[in-house]
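Standup, Tuesday
Yesterday: got the pipeline producing structure tokens again.
Today: sanity-check two examples.
Blockers: none.

Example 1:
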Amino acid sequence: MDTTGATVTRRRSWRSRRLDRDHSLGLRLSLATAAAFLVLIPFALLALLVLGAWSPLLRVDASITDAFHGYAQDHPAWVTVMTVWTHVFGPGPLRVAAAVVAVWLFRRGASRLAAWVVVTMIAGGLLGALLKLLVGRDRPDLLEPVARAAGYSFPSGHALNAALAAGVLLLVFLPFARDSRAGRIMLWAAALLVTVVTGLSRIALGVHWTSDVVGGWVLGAAVVAATSAAFATWRSGSGRPSARPLREGVEPELADQRPEGGRA
């Protein structure tokens, strides 16, 4: 028996199934998984630059922090707005919002989607906390600071959780706007607004470096992409049609389900 030929045939068969749009682990899942890893690459590079104290990165961080700090010292109202925003859209409130949505999904009968929301938020939060300890980067030490925060700096927990919550809620609610271009634009705009302004509020208050915030954003996007790919695996294994997450969300059928409770 030609074992070499059989091995090659099996490899080709696996590859053809992997790229088959109709197979449970088809092309969309392959692309989603690859996207998750590709998003992790810039985060890994940024983390290495932070760990290595790369001088160009440190200079950019310092110059942006100094500019924001100088503006904050001259504009107390700006500090007040940023302080309110950073508390309203902090990790705690965003986790509560995600938990409320998860309960709503469970009662609606979408128990696996509810589990995806919870797992994504918990996994991202734990990963961010672990990376903070591993990197051990100090926060900005400013004269006459306008705000204070405890703990290590990289990646920003506020930026990370804003990206996680915005990504999760966006992908949950997109099915309700699948027939409305204006509705999709509004959902995307809201998700980007929360993510971007929450991260910027941490720089504006002088409690994070810019690279901390960028790291939080990228890590959050990577976690959402990875868990979305895992959710797509379950959908494919259950015989459900492929979804277009950026347009239809991760569970397009959600908008058609009646809120009768029970398990999906």
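Example 2:
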Amino acid sequence: MTDQGLRIGIAGITGRVGRLLVEEVQAAGAVLAGGTVRDKAKATGLPEGLALFTNMAGLAAVSDVVIDFTHADTAIPHAQALADHDTAWVLGTTGLSGAQQAAVLKAAETIGVVHAANFSAGVTLVRRLAQMMGQALPAESYDAEIVEMHHRQKVDAPSGTALAIGEAVAKGRGVALADVKESGRDGHTGPRKPGAIGFAALRGGQIVGEHEVLFTSADEQITLTHRAFDRRVFATGAVRAALWVQDRPAGYYGMEEVLGLPPC
């Protein structure tokens, strides 16, 4: 995978995924255009002479594509800066509010945006299979449950990936996830609601990410499992998305399009 002319910028370049992205951009043969940091004085261990910026506008001006795994609070200003500079956007931020998601979609009218809760090829395929299973297995007969586990430092639950898998199941069933989601059961909850999509979140150690989707009936159980062993898988997928989106017209894309999966 090479593209020596493509300039890729990295938002939050000193973060754990940001540093992996530096290596993956270089391995892909693309140009590492620069990155954003909170404090330039504390930005150590990066390639010598790399352009560093404290705002997205500066990075967008020198990049063809920016990969962004920062925070939901940055989505609106980042969307505006990237659209203003006609710079494509690979966005891995989850937990966006309605207004933040609207800003992303607005930017996609001007630039190519690849937005995914998880850039792993494996998770993308699990989501597709979960949608197909949600469509094929009747909700009144097959209970859908999603279990995820992450490292102890993770601050949100369920994970963005778990919610994305739940959205896929709900799409397959023709319902809105918000109407059928059950999360964090505790105490005397009563019997399981028919058609519910349940979530359980576990935290401990330094687990990168584990997700399990279970469809259980009175007679059988089907399980889909994905385990990430290294955060590098997310960086590799994001760079793959950056190389893909450079030649695409303005629009809002997911990893399904990057992997070339047929519409579903």
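Quick observation on example 2: DSSP finds nine helices and twelve strands in the chain. The first strand starts at residue 7 and ends at 11.
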